Amino acid sequence: MLAMPEPDRAVLARRAEIIAALRKIAPGEGVIDGERERRAYECDALTAYRQTPMVVVLPETTAQVVEILRYCKANAIRVVPRGAGTSLSGGALPLADGVLLGMSKFNRIVEIDVADRCVVAQPGVTNLAISHAVQGHGLYYAPDPSSQIACSIGGNVAENSGGVHCLKYGLTTNNVIEVEFVTIDGEVIRLGGKHFDSGALDLLGVLVGSEGLLGVVTAVTVRVLPTPPGARALLIGFPSVRGAADCVAAVIGSGIIPGGMEIMDKLAIEAAEAFVHAGYPLGAEALLIVELDGCAAEVDHLVARVEKIAADHGAASCRASQSEQERLLFWAGRKAAFPAVGRLSPDYLCMDGTIPRKEIGAVLLRMKQLEAKYGLRVANVFHAGDGNLHPLILYDANKPGELERAERFGDDILRLCVEVGGVLTGEHGVGVEKRDLMDVMFDEIDLAQQQRLKCAFDEANLLNPGKVFPRLCRCAELGRMHVRGGALPHPDLPRF
């Protein structure tokens, strides 16, 4: 059973007073306190877990964010930042005694700097809106999560989101060059800049992927790239998952870095094809989508090389896009795979673990064995090029015990990822979904060090508590000293 921090009864008793104070900071429609209206914020895209927030605040300016956080710090009130609510790990799960700080009104693009090839955007701007804003200049923003039409750039920063084209062009952390954020103390801090790099500690790298535990993002500067002069996509059908997995490793091993490389298994292929009609090979056990981009001659050369590699690994079919419209149709099926699979089952859990590419085939075979163990089906749709798995575990929450079985199934998949040399998350974050598995990957010293970093920004643990860390400690406890045999460690050091 998912455990969250116990509500502070003293804070709940002051709810009316807190709401009145927040209305002064964010007047008009800036505060949502009605029970029915608050339910719209009770979960993110991990809908298995729900909790109605004490109050929702929608600031419009950085100055309002500063005041809200200062007020919450002074009154020991917990705060959960929220972007578009597309998080798949429960990162924006509210607290019963907490302020849910929604950043949806921060929805403007502040600056398009073509000379420096960057865009300054508020955190509520959607991922896809950035590419739309610069496409007239022949530019685009490379990280493209499947939810890019809805997910916000602030949420992308919080979770270090990936996407189809991140194999070649990097995750969010590789494409963000500056972030403005507000600490729980109400201090506005800027990290990074339009310059190439910083000689100081990489605090920008620390903030990207910090899941709202360190501060609230109020502005993001992202790098935009020239749109490739051309691109073609290949649909490659395989009679076995192993063949598709081995082909992935062979393509990368040959020195080719595709713009994108995705795998879908038979269940996902059938669901996506029925949903989009993209021309996917329905008889295939696995489908590999490979996109090559660059100038026309380079693309044609790479297409021919990948076609040969696929044939050498037993491909049953191989079809290359002949137009931009057809290329986009190939990807439409992949982008719509998650909602398409939703037609197969009332509910599903979307997992997120990353493994070495060479282990893809073996891990998918182990998943089949786990399907039999738990009596639940899995549809696999994932970023094959960087080994970022997204197994969709199908279940029915209305059937007693199925959610619990799906959770145990998911836990076993993530343990398997770590077992083969991978990690618990690639782009969805830890949130609450993987929180209690963190000690599978990290020992006590690792986790304590991570919590010390959290304490440096938020010593009272008011920002997004209950996420990421399986066991919370007070900051003072993390600094304790162990005395063994009555002797202090390193007695030669001065003590203060």
From TrEMBL:
InterPro entries: FAD-bd_oxidored_4_C, FAD-bd_PCMH, FAD-bd_PCMH-like_sf, FAD-bd_PCMH_sub2, FAD-linked_Oxase-like_C, FAD-linked_OxidoTrans_Type4, Oxid_FAD_bind_N, Vanillyl_alc_oxidase_C-sub2. SUPFAM superfamilies: FAD-binding/transporter-associated domain-like, FAD-linked oxidases, C-terminal domain. Its cofactor is FAD. GO terms for molecular function: FAD binding; oxidoreductase activity. Keywords: FAD, Flavoprotein, Oxidoreductase. Residues 49-227 form the FAD-binding PCMH-type domain. This is Glycolate oxidase. It comes from Rhodoblastus acidophilus.
